[in-house]
Amino acid sequence: MNKPVLTIVVPCYNEEEVLPETMKQLLHLLEQLIAEKLISRQSKLLFVDDGSKDQTWQLIYKASLQHETVKGVKLSSNVGHQNALLAGLFAAKSVSDCIVSIDADLQDDISIIREFVQKFHEGYEIVYGVRKKRNTDTFFKRYTAQGFYKLMKAMGVNVVYNHADYRLMSRRAVEELERFEEVNLFLRGIVPLLGFRSTVVYYDRKERLAGETKYPLKKMIAFALDGITSFSITPIRFISIIGFISFFVSLIFGMYFIFLKFTGHTQTGWTSLIMSIWLLGGLQLIAFGLIGEYIGKIYKETKRRPRYIVDIDLLNLPLRANHSS
Ligand code: UDP
Ligand code: MG
């Protein structure tokens, strides 16, 4: 087999603090892999600037002038980690045999990229990086993340446990991924749907090297909710089941009230009546909320908006004369 061209895609949002170190380490690794004849000399690092407000793009651009292996794509605005990652994958696919996606903060052990590539040589098309332990994450992050995976499983969404978008994909897998045209693309749910021969490589997750998390609680909840509602109708089913149960319960109560009426105690039903009004009112509101969540999805999908807009793509086509800002 010819040596495969590897592209490492790194989405970056306000990562100026950590980026120089990340570049240094990834460049070093890439050179090693080339020297070990595991990958082709054409292999590249592709940094996607997700509309950063700091010096992230300037750093990427400068590095691309110094190193032939460093390339950059600059998105015109902040579109979030998932979309930035997709921008990178789709930009890289035509010039790569396999693509590794990794975060910019060096939390994921980059040395296992070697194993990713070895697995690719063995014929695997998708290799998932899976965290062994999360003891460097905060207590809170660990438990919310665990809850997230459990909830996804319970909702019938097939996700790889403790895997977070650190993976290798073959060019073919990325090409197939592109055919999923939904705008709310939840990668961790879609990639297992692709099928193909896939495997797992374990590693220890470290602490963020510098800078702070771009996933505060609010974004994490939105991410989880997005993941669930774009993959599963279990919440709606759940509501329908509750609806049925309360319907039968109120039938029984109804018979009880009729019995009370005939035995002359009509006043006594007031408490349960007011309770059921509140209960049903609450249930209806929850149901509306959930249905609204799905209608929101439909609304977004029908618009077919592009997920991202590339401003500068140093990898494929120079779009503007001056790319430095
Ligand atoms: N990121 C991005 N766009 C965003 C938010 C984050 O491209 O709007 C990138 C970020 O630069 C990092 C990766 O996504 O490379 C993961 O973000 P982070 O490390 O903050 O998330 P955490 O590891 O805390 O879940
Ligand atoms: Mg991180």
TrEMBL record:
Topological relation to the membrane, as annotated: Multi-pass membrane protein
**Keyword Glycosyltransferase on this protein?**
yes
Q: Which SUPFAM superfamilies match?
A: Nucleotide-diphospho-sugar transferases (SSF53448)
Cross-referenced InterPro entries: Glyco_trans_2-like, Glycosyltransferase_2, Nucleotide-diphossugar_trans
Q: Which UniProt keywords apply?
A: Glycosyltransferase, Membrane, Transferase, Transmembrane, Transmembrane helix
Transmembrane segment boundaries:
238-260, 272-295
Where located? Membrane
Coiled coil (residue ranges): none
CC per GO annotation = plasma membrane
The residue ranges of the Glycosyltransferase 2-like domain are: 7-177
One GO molecular-function entry = glycosyltransferase activity
The protein, known as:
Glycosyltransferase involved in cell wall biosynthesis
